[in-house]
Amino acid sequence: MVEALKSGIEISFKTIIKIERVRHGWFNDSIGETEITRTVRFDALSRVYRLVRTGKEEIVSDIFEALSGMTNYEINMPVHSEPAKGNSYRVRARAKIDRVGLTEPLRSIIFFSSFWDVETEWARGYLVIQ
């Protein structure tokens, strides 16, 4: 994928983040969910990477800085109900490649290739309300 990025292919990832109230013996209650899309592409003319996150384009000169910008998150998540002290909460996150962001010729090629089927498992963590 790094080679594809260096050759000028635009790569987009969608990250889904969910917050749930854990209820033992019953279904968990979703209190918030958001979807974040980040895109990076190499501009061969100016020899920089263009990283788009939170709707703003950033220009970085190093591929490792561009990839770091794709994977580091600091977000404020809207919630449906206010978290209460004493309740148990879990955060789940998953990332996958966004094929919609690819150009039309690439979308038809990757339809038959499993190389571009990039999707993580759900990562889980717990929140403590203080």
Task: Please tell me about this protein's structure.
With 130 residues, this protein is α+β, with helices and mostly antiparallel strands. The chain has one domain (2-127): Sandwich (Immunoglobulin-like). The chain has helices at 2-6, 63-71, 104-110, and strands at 11-22, 29-43, 48-53, 56-60, 88-97, 123-127. A six-stranded antiparallel beta sheet has the order 4-3-2-1-5-6, covered by helices on one side. The longest helix has 9 residues, at 63-71. It is elongated and about 55 Å long. The N and C termini lie far apart (41 Å). The mean pLDDT is 83.
Q: Which second-level CATH architecture applies?
A: Sandwich
The poorly predicted ranges are none
Order of helices and strands: HEEEEHEHE
* Helical/strand content category: alpha+beta
- Helical proportion? 10-25%
With strands numbered from the N-terminus, the spatial order across the biggest sheet is 4-3-2-1-5-6
